[in-house]
Amino acid sequence: MKVLCVAEKPSIAKEVSKILSGGSFSVRNSNNKYIKYFDFKYNFPQLGLCDVTMTAVLGHVTNFDFGPQFGWNSCPPGRLFAAPISTMVSHQDVYKNLSIEGRNASKLMIWTDCDREGEYIGFEILETARKNNSRLTLENTWRAQFSHLEKNHILQASRNPIQLDINSVRAVECRMEVDLRCGISFTRFLTDLYKGQSLIGEKEVISYGTCQFPTLGFVVDRYIRVKNFVPEPFWYIIVDIKKNDQKVGFLWVKGHFFDRAYVTLLYQKALKSPNGKIVSLTKRPTSNWRPLPLTTVDLQKDASRIFKMSAKRALDAAEKLYNKGFVSYPRTETDRFPAAMNLKDVIERQTSSNKWGSYAKELLELKFRSPRSGSHDDKAHPPIHPVKYAELTQLNGDEKTIYEYIVRRFLACCSDDAKGEQTTATLKWGDELFTANGLMVLARNYLDIYIYNKWESSKQLPPLEQGEEVNITNAKMKDGKTSPPLHMTESELIALMDANGIGTDATIAEHIEKIHSRNYVTKIKQGNVEYILPTDLGMGLIAGFDEMDFVDNISLSKPFLRKNLEIGLQEIVEGRKTRQQVASEMVELYKNAFVLCNQNSGNLVQKYLEIRNRNVQ
DNA sequence: GCAAGGTC
């Protein structure tokens, strides 16, 4: 009996083959240079000893598209909201692999990632393999359930196959349909509109996408908030005391007020007391927590914040490290390690480093702690962690930086929190309360390896006693003003996209790149920090859309529509709605907006012209 | 020339 196993990517095919075959398999080349066939024998409990061929695809094999009669200049863009959609093969060589290998298989087993897209890719594999083999049906196709590559977990998955989840398949079809109809129609409409008035060059495109525009919207929104910011004055009180020749500054518990007269009143009342009194003195243990296991989004935020490396560059470097076998799969949303994973093995492999080897040894011998568990699990990949030890000299610039970061992050996860002691003195002066803090770091623990976090002892408070009367050496009423928000950094943008469900771990960086390459945003450096600012074009596009009076108050530049789509997709997965229901609801919303934009295309462009001209004057 | 989602 021949069983064909297919994974989402070559690395999984190889690892699973190693585990199922116990290391004895033979390798054949395929039509694609990245993809191999692994042949071996395996005993499936339901089938007995089988001839197994394990191979992979490279993500999606097919894609949705409109027919040739719906090309750019062959139909009005509005037609695309209802035009028929067909499935096209996007990777011919991969497609060919599956049709050939599927021909004489009695059983197909899907080993794609266990997430929504993986379920659909599994479905594409089935549809392809069954073209030449009618024995392969949805009902008799096995789907392996696994979330990492630990040996027993994979063996368990091989023995307990389930079926492809057709609801997830329909949900992905729905996403593809909505993104295709909205993206292509608006892109053609906007490009033709801007080009018609010679506002962009012959080769330029004004693209619209359900993710691109909310991303741009975040940047524009921040920019406007900074520009429109009006500082507000406020007033507050500070107090100093002196003990053992040491000056201690106290902060007002009430913070500050925007009413000068009120603060003056409280200040003058307090001034009647020449002395203050220490009303409480507390010492409490405090911790500085070690980081959570590493996700893609965290990696990208930190790369941008700590190393000034764009999200795209960071992910590129992590991918190269992954392809060389140095780190685990870099696209993951999971921030908890699987219980069965042998973390000490991972640490052991780092002991040969002259930079962090001794720390790793110390962890193994004495100080190892189980990592914290976050609340995210994509059910497909474990958190990013080092796999093989790499000499830093083997790696190039970005790879070196990212590898070292991933190793330090992992070792930090397996360390103890930093421990300290915080002393808080509360001073009463008249009727007003003030506090002063002193921090003493007692055990640095994870901070010794995770050099990117700072937590230092502050100046210690002098010996004070509860109930002690202290002389106020200085008391002032001060003023300040509220400061504007800062412009958007890439790391904040990533966090916003993540929190609002715009894009995925694998695509967030691409969306940011896209709005940059389309000239909707620009990056400027101020001091050591890089900010993302909208261009006139980006401002104009968002302002134009925001000007429109869409039905139901929807917005084409805010994240809510995309979030609604996500909610709809989840309802399809749970069987509460059909693909058709959700797709037609969403497409209807975008189509109404499209019609309005068409009718008011003059206003849409006018907004851009106003912004451009305002900046010229 | 167009989307977003996989992966190389």
The CATH architecture of the largest domain would be Orthogonal Bundle
How does the helix and strand content classify structurally? alpha+beta
Overall 3D form: flat
According to CATH, what is the class of the largest domain? Mainly Alpha
CATH superfamily of the largest domain: Topoisomerase I, domain 2
When the domains are counted, the total is 4
Low-confidence stretches: none
Biggest sheet statistics: 6 strands, mixed
Strand order of the largest sheet: 2-3-4-1-7-8
Q: How would you summarize the topology of this molecule?
A:
Blueprint: E1 2-7, H1 10-21, E2 26-29, E3 36-44, E4 48-56, E5 62-66, E6 85-89, H2 92-102, E7 107-111, H3 116-129, E8 142-143, H4 151-159, H5 166-196, H6 212-227, E9 233-243, E10 246-252, H7 260-271, E11 275-288, H8 296-307, H9 311-323, H10 343-348, H11 357-367, H12 397-413, E12 418-429, E13 432-443, E14 469-481, E15 488-489, H13 490-499, H14 508-517, E16 521-526, E17 529-534, H15 536-547, H16 560-573, H17 579-599, H18 601-616
Parallel strand pairs: 1-4, 1-7, 7-8
Antiparallel strand pairs: 2-3, 3-4, 5-6, 9-10, 9-14, 10-13, 11-12, 11-14, 12-13, 15-17, 16-17
Helix pairs in contact: 3-5, 5-16, 5-17, 6-14, 8-9, 8-13, 9-12, 15-18
The protein binds one DNA strand of 8 nucleotides through residues 8-10, 32-34, 56-61, 63-64, 72, 77, 91, 112-113, 117-118, 120-121, 172, 175-176, 178-188, 191, 203-212, 319, 323, 331, 503-504, 506-507, 510-511.
